[in-house]
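Follow-up to my earlier ticket, as requested here are the two runs.
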Amino acid sequence: MVQIGRFNRLQVTRMQDIGARLDAGRWGSILLPKRYVPDNCQLGDELDVFIYLDSEDRLIASTQAPKVLVGECASLKCVSIGPMGAFLDWGMPKDLFVPFAEMAKPMEEGKYYLVHVYLDNSNRLAASSKLDRFIDETGHQYRRGQLVDLLIGERTDLGYKAVINHTSWGLLYHSEIFKPIRKGFRIKGFIRGVREDGKVELSLEKPGYGRINDIAERVLSQLTAAGGHLPLSDKSAPEAIQETFGISKGAFKQAIGALYKQQLITIEKGGIRLVDEDATKA
């Protein structure tokens, strides 16, 4: 069955001057315009195509990938305002429509908005900035340490709200943020924990001691590559640690603390140094 707003694998049944006709089952045939038809395309070939409605509300196929699929969330730019709503740039020839009734606040041309893409009652793709209608407030299905995709939302007193895997809200505390982020950013993150009320807490680093072991291995590798010394320590600026390792200062301190306890490094005023194995054996 053809899914509107998603990629479908369809078979070529006819070649025309205007493009290729694809078998869409009960939907009949769908046109893949000539500009999207791959070179050497032949009858019987199966193509992965994105299906949507064109400006005349006809099903149309494209090998071009949009910025967001149906059921997903994205930060999109408003390119125009019409009598019935706004239109967003989503990377396709026909802009994505947002009805006035689906705006959390009035949209303005040139600004970016977080939206959820859905199919309306006429199977036309549309978007809504009323995310709470589509995004769950709880995340009981997640486990601590799970890697997830995040779409950064509004800033709050505690941190940033973020959409997890297009389906759930989570909170990324200010204390867990060690690199620049802003609303609309897509970023990988981790589930820090799920509270008893189902609210999800997020982190940009993998929680638990396993994460520290991973970071410690990276520190050792960097030390070896640098000749045994790095000008970073527990006194270094968070920005310097972020630039070198892409981690928070707290995670770095835990990692070098673990290495120090294992007598693998020494912590000096100007940085950290690998312990000379021959010296320790002597």
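Run two:
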Amino acid sequence: MRGLAVTRLFLSHFRSHQSARLAFDSRPVAIVGPNGAGKTNILEAVSLLSPGRGLRRAALEDMARRPEAIGWKIAAELRGSEAGHEIETWAAGSGARELRIDGKAARQVALGRLLRVLWLVPAMDRLWIEAAEGRRRFLDRLALSFFPEHAEAALDYEKAMRERNRLLKEEVRDPRWYGALEARMAGAGARLEANRAATLERLALAQLGGRDIFPRAELSLIHPEPVAPGAEALAEALAAGRRRDMAAGRTLSGPHRTDLGAVYAAKDVPADQCSTGEQKALLLSLILANARALTQDLGRAPVLLLDEVAAHLDPDRRAALYDEIVALGAQALMTGTEAALFDSLGESAQIIRVAETGGLSRIET
């Protein structure tokens, strides 16, 4: 079931692309070229058509092509069976990121309601063995795909927590100041945790509909200091922890410390104890389950960005991945160093070649 897809993409002074124009049809897209040619930069540009900092979580100034460093711009045309939209997002110099949808200024949360974008990149390969922050960020990205308002809840929570942490460091003791901030944190934090729990339930169901070749992951929320669900319980926990938090100079309990647990279901082995290949397969299984769930819930498939994913799969899993993408009707942009990695797609794939000369990427037609 196809929804909105990116049909045209224009990059200006974005990373290694001084100026690039790409046109995509309805097929999965294989972006092929040597390492360093600028393939991932194209995927990063598409990821910025969704809320947040994109698949690299880079600073805005780092996205600008050097040595010009004059800022960057991305323009995209979205088309679907019933609607079309034009998106422009850019940052000039050291300025903030700006956004226009159909010629009108918009907030990033509007992107999440317009286009759902999921990605898997090599930097995520260490997800199960790195610090909890990376898994929490991954979890929130999953939740955002189901609940576009999740980003606003996270922002509200973080803003209030920063203010509370400032009071703690300054050893302010007036309970009225804390009460107002903790009420904000509790309201936003309860929404965060509810969205996270609902996301895990939805993924569990969607994984049951996957192919056996992709391992099923049993997911759980891990709370270093458990708090009963709901805003009232969280507000009480924050109030009770003020003295301890003041000694530490920061907030020690709350949704900002939630971790994501995963177990390879068929083997009953925690993800961090699995082999490198199994950890990668678990991640891919979750991304596909996320895509299936969104397709079922929304009646349209998300956009998938899969960076160098084919190189890490055996031929059987590679073919199964492609079959699932085609069956979903998802627009998938995949990168690889060789076109042969996508041979099993045959005429089902659109091939785009990228080359690099003197630090400048170019699209070969």
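The only thing I checked on run two: The mean pLDDT is 93. Let me know what else you need.
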